[in-house]
Specification:
This protein is mainly alpha-helical. It is built from six helices and three strands. The radius of gyration is 19 Å and the shape is elongated.
Length: 142
């Protein structure tokens, strides 16, 4: 039975979105931990940022941000340079290799979803298109 009760709908939506997110994470950026993927994505979105700002954006401690960035730097996905105004601090930025890896992951996840969506009927895809508009409106309402 389909419910339209806000609490019941919220519970079903949370579960479905969580399952979909887990499936997508399985198809993304092999070899990186979820924390490393998150930091890489943050650097891609925000550009070069001081380590303290990176920690704030990721909601982690500065030592944790440093450890994660160390691993990404070892893989050639991130580069750190001295902060121009405070030589005791560093600025982290994504490298071309890091950007390429993120794009590869996006393409892989999109292809995964496209294969799944191709299995749906035209009518179900139409319904999903409408649901995406509703989800976008829900998110924008924050």
């Amino acid at each position: 039975m389909i419910t339209t009760d806000p609490a019941g709908l919220a519970d079903r939506l949370r579960l479905s979105v969580g399952r979909l997110a887990r499936r997508l994470r399985q198809h993304s950026l092999g070899g990186l931990t979820p924390s490393q993927r998150s930091v890489l994505s943050t650097l891609s979105r925000h550009g070069p940022v001081p380590m303290s700002r990176l920690a704030d954006l990721e909601l982690i401690s500065r030592p944790a941000a440093t450890r994660i960035t160390d691993r990404l730097e070892e893989k050639g996905l991130v580069r750190r340079t001295p902060h121009p105004e405070d030589r005791r601090s560093a600025v982290a930025e994504i490298t071309a290799a890091g950007s390429a890896l993120l794009e590869e992951g996006r393409q892989e996840r999109t292809a995964f979803l496209a294969r799944r969506l191709a299995r749906l009927s035209r009518e179900d895809r139409r319904k999903l298109a409408g649901a995406i508009e509703v989800l976008d409106a829900l998110v924008e309402g924050e």
